[in-house]
Design a protein that fits this description.
Length: 306
C-alpha cells in the first residue's frame, strides 16, 4: 500500500474475523514517505494479535514526511509490541512512540496570578476529561496557592526577581524548575498564563514538551492590557493560540487556535472575560491532544490527528 494521501481506517481486525481482547495502546510515527509503510506497520501489529480500532495517516506535501497514528488493542505486553515494531522502525528510519492508552501524561503547570486557565486544567483533570496527571504546580507568585490547595496539588513558589543591583535570579529559578521536572518525572510543562519569558536554554531543554497560551492579537497589540488595546481599536474578533514553546518568543509550532466574535457594544472588561474563556478552552484542547499523542511536529508546523 502506498501511504501518500490522508486516510482514515476504523476497527480493522488484523487477526481474522474474531475480535481481539486486550489492553488499548497508541502508536504514532513519522518518517520519510515511501511505499509499504502502512503494510509494514500493520504486519507488525498482526504479529502481536493487534486489533486496529482507529488509524489516521498524512503525507506532508511540504516536507515529504509521512505521519501515522494508530489506536489498537493487543493481548501482548508493551515490550512485545516494541520488539515487533523495531525492524519496521529501523527499515524506515522512523521517529516512533508507543504508549498504553490508559496511561496519563505527567504534567507540571506553571502560572502567575491569573487563575482561569489553571482552573480549567485542574477541573478537567479532576473530571477525567484530560488524560493528564498534575503532580505539582509552580508559580512565581503566591496568589493561586489556595486554588492548588483546593485541588490537593503541591504548590511550589519559585519567585523570579531582581535584587537591588539589578541582578536577576532567573537562572537559579529555572534550575529549580528543571530539578522539579526530574523529581516528579514530568513529561509535559504547561504555561497557564505564566508571565515570565523563559530563557533560550530552558526552551531548548523543553522542546516539544512545553505548551504556552496567549491571545491572538500579536503582533498588533503587544505588552500589557492587550484586550484593552484591542477594544480601543475596535477589533471584531478575539482569540487565543496554544503552541509549543521555542526560543523564538510566541512563534513555536501552533497546536490549536480559537476565535470569538465581539462587538462595539462590549466593554474592555467584557473583552477580557471572553478572551480568558477562549484562552482556557484553547489551552485545554491543546493539552488534551498532546496527552493523547495526537500532535506530531512537521518542521515549524504541527500535524494534529483529531
Amino acid at each position: 500500500m502506498n501511504a501518500s494521501t490522508p486516510a482514515t481506517a476504523s476497527h480493522a481486525t488484523l487477526a481474522g474475523s474474531a475480535e481481539i481482547t486486550g489492553h488499548p495502546m497508541v502508536l504514532s510515527l513519522s518518517c520519510k514517505n515511501s511505499r509499504g509503510i502502512v503494510h509494514a506497520v500493520s504486519g507488525a501489529l498482526l504479529s502481536v494479535q493487534g486489533d486496529i480500532t482507529d488509524s489516521k495517516q498524512f503525507d506532508s506535501p511540504d516536507t515529504g514526511t509521512f505521519f501515522m497514528r494508530v489506536e489498537f488493542t493487543t493481548p501482548e505486553s508493551r515490550e512485545a509490541v516494541e520488539a515487533a515494531l523495531e525492524p519496521v522502525r529501523e527499515e524506515f528510519a522512523m521517529d516512533l512512540g508507543l504508549w498504553e492508552a490508559s496511561r496519563k501524561t505527567r504534567t507540571l503547570v506553571m502560572c502567575s496570578k491569573d487563575g482561569r486557565t489553571l482552573n480549567d486544567l485542574l477541573f478537567q483533570q479532576r473530571a477525567g476529561t484530560l488524560s493528564v496527571e498534575i503532580p505539582v504546580i509552580v508559580s512565581n507568585h503566591l496568589e493561586l496557592q489556595p486554588m492548588a490547595f483546593f485541588y490537593g496539588i503541591p504548590f511550589i513558589h519559585i519567585p523570579v526577581a531582581k535584587d537591588a543591583e539589578g541582578n536577576s535570579n532567573k537562572a537559579e529559578a529555572e534550575a529549580k524548575l528543571l530539578d522539579l521536572v526530574a523529581e516528579y518525572d514530568i513529561e509535559l510543562v504547561v504555561l497557564a498564563r505564566y508571565m515570565q519569558i523563559l530563557s533560550d536554554d530552558l526552551c531548548r531543554k523543553l522542546e516539544g514538551k512545553a505548551i504556552n497560551i496567549h491571545h491572538s492579537f500579536l503582533p498588533s497589540f503587544k505588552g500589557a492590557r492587550p484586550y484593552h488595546q484591542a477594544h480601543d481599536r475596535g477589533v471584531k474578533l478575539i482569540g487565543a493560540t496554544a503552541h509549543y514553546v521555542t526560543a523564538d518568543l510566541d512563534e513555536g509550532p501552533i497546536i490549536e487556535q480559537q476565535v470569538q466574535r465581539v462587538t462595539h457594544a462590549q466593554s474592555a472588561r467584557e473583552f477580557v472575560i471572553r478572551g480568558r474563556e477562549v484562552e482556557g478552552s484553547t489551552l485545554s484542547r491543546a493539552v488534551k491532544w498532546h496527552a493523547e499523542h495526537r500532535v506530531l511536529l512537521d518542521g515549524k508546523r504541527t500535524v494534529v490527528f483529531d
